[in-house]
Amino acid sequence: MCGILGLFGNPKSIDINLFKRALDKITHRGPDAHGIYQNEDIIFGHRRLSIIDLSPLGNQPMVDEDTNNVIIFNGEIYNFKDIRDFLASKGIRFYSNSDTEALLKAYRYFDVEVLHKLRGMFSFCIYDFNQKRLFFARDRFGKKPFYYTFIKGNFLFSSEIKALLPFFDKKPLPDKNAMADYFRYLAPSYGKTMYEGIYKLPPSCFGILDKNGLLIKEYYNPLEYASKSYQNEDQVLKDIEEKLIESVELRLVGDVEVASLLSGGLDSSFVSALYSKIAKEKFGRHINTFSIGYDEYEHYSELSWALKVSKFIDSNHHPITINSKTFIETIDEVVYFLDEPINDPATVPTYIISSFIKENGIKVALSGEGSDELFFGYDLYYKYLNYEAIKSLKKESKELILESLDKNPSKPTEFLIRALKDEIVFRTIGECFTDFELQRFLRFSYENSQLELFSQKFEPFKHHHISFWYYFVDMYMWIGEVLMMKVDKMAMAHSVELRAPMLDQKLHELILNVDPNLRISNQNKHLLKKIATKYLPEEIVYRRKKGFSYPFIEWFYKEKKDFLKDWLLINKEHGFFEEDFLRFLYENGNSKAYKHHVWAVEIFNRWFRQNYLSN
């Protein structure tokens, strides 16, 4: 797990000291070692967080002594030992025990097809010496970011935007289309960033840059594995359990201790329980678990549940409690490390608990992200299924209902209108501002969202159950751009690596072959819960789903009070928002319906102030 920064083009056109200063901006991603490599085509820089092969032999940039290919790599290849063993059998020599060397030499053998051999989380770039080209890629679920831009004929890329900004003569303006996506879907979507001219490689994609130009191409689509072939529940449960155990075991690879996040909910409890069992049986030790709670509004806190799980699995448990003052004081730090706005209030507790993990001398922890999307775990998914059923009504009935609906629709009413008009109802689990709200809110024009693109990509699979559409959209627009970016940015701010066993491609490919009627059933996470009862008490497994929540909006209104004045002042600076809608959000934002809208505006304004108004 590391930070990367690179340039391809004319290295002599930039000041090497500028490059070094830019690399220093991502020191938090890799405080253990750093390196710079330069030749006539490239400058590659690397900040290392040492996890696999802690010796200097694992340092980067790394050069293949036989081909002169050069790599900088961020992430972990969990199956690197199998890859290395195969290559060694073909006569390829290794000088380290690092996954970086395995990846670099696997490229020599497999070329671009190496991507299909990798099981892990990664963003990397390889300079191919013979072909004078760059080959770069981002993992299937977008766990690791890869940002890029073109400046004065040079191609620059990095793990974080903040390392690219020093190369611009003037800071790029906000991208209004990305801004609209942020307010709709919580983050700039599929290749966009909040800065004009800076782009993000989408999940499951690779790029090649050579004399012919830049090619971006998708190398993985999970729906190609979808079918209904699994219909025997007993066999399904057996195979999923085996794959879950394998997924956790893979994510223990490395030469440092691995801990586990433990919120008290099903997902993190199950991952921690599996890990604890493996640790005792294979290593004869207890695992460390970490959880976070709140000193007010205790109905949000799940510390008591986390403690119950910890006692049951016999872990060394480390709880931390935060208050409203800590919350408010942390927001600006969070915005800085996010690089661009992400509307997920969970960024703040993720940032704080990552700091707590680091204070305890631990670099790596497991987390439970990805389970809800895979096992149909959101209650909202079931509500969307009800909207889909409305599409089967007769045309005359739909027209009568449409005529009776409010012309200023609430979010549920807008979803109903979509169904009655046979439009796409589900547009990611994190949809915030609806089309109608956005039209009332933004003062500028913007392009349509990426929804049409995803609809076209889904076209070959539309014969599948509608739940596959939910999975497909959430994989690209929610998991890759919101969930995983939150995890990466907030943990790496403290030089901590979070690994998500539920986001393993082999596990997903297996479950996408399960008959949807088995996967969905009459309760969320039906299959996972049946397996989890073998590892956890039923009161944990079957307690009412709460979802991750904490008193962010209550604390915000309590501590900031008259924040509308701040909003109106900064709006005079950028002029992006309608004042009437800002007032509406201020007055209604502490309700369940609009609290995420308020958070979206606040995070954007803090980002704008840091980037365009600060000296």
Describe the structure.
- With 615 residues, the protein is an alpha+beta fold.
- Helices cover 43% and strands 15% of the residues.
- The chain is built from 24 helices and 17 strands.
- Strands 2-3-1-9-8-10 form a 6-stranded antiparallel beta sheet, with helices on one face. Strands 4-5-6-7-11-12 form a 6-stranded antiparallel beta sheet.
- The model has no long low-confidence stretch (mean pLDDT 95).
**Termini Cα gap:** 32 Å
Helix content: 40-55%
Radius of gyration: 24 Å
Number of helices in the DSSP assignment: 24
Number of strands: 17
User: In one word, what is the shape?
Assistant: globular
Instruction: Give the strand order of the largest sheet, numbering strands 1, 2, ... along the chain.
Output: 2-3-1-9-8-10
Mean pLDDT: 95
Largest sheet: 6 strands, antiparallel
Low-confidence runs of at least 5 consecutive residues: none
How much of the sequence is in beta strands? 15-25%
Structural class: alpha+beta
Give descriptors for this structure.
15% strand, alpha+beta, 24 helices, 6-stranded antiparallel β-sheet
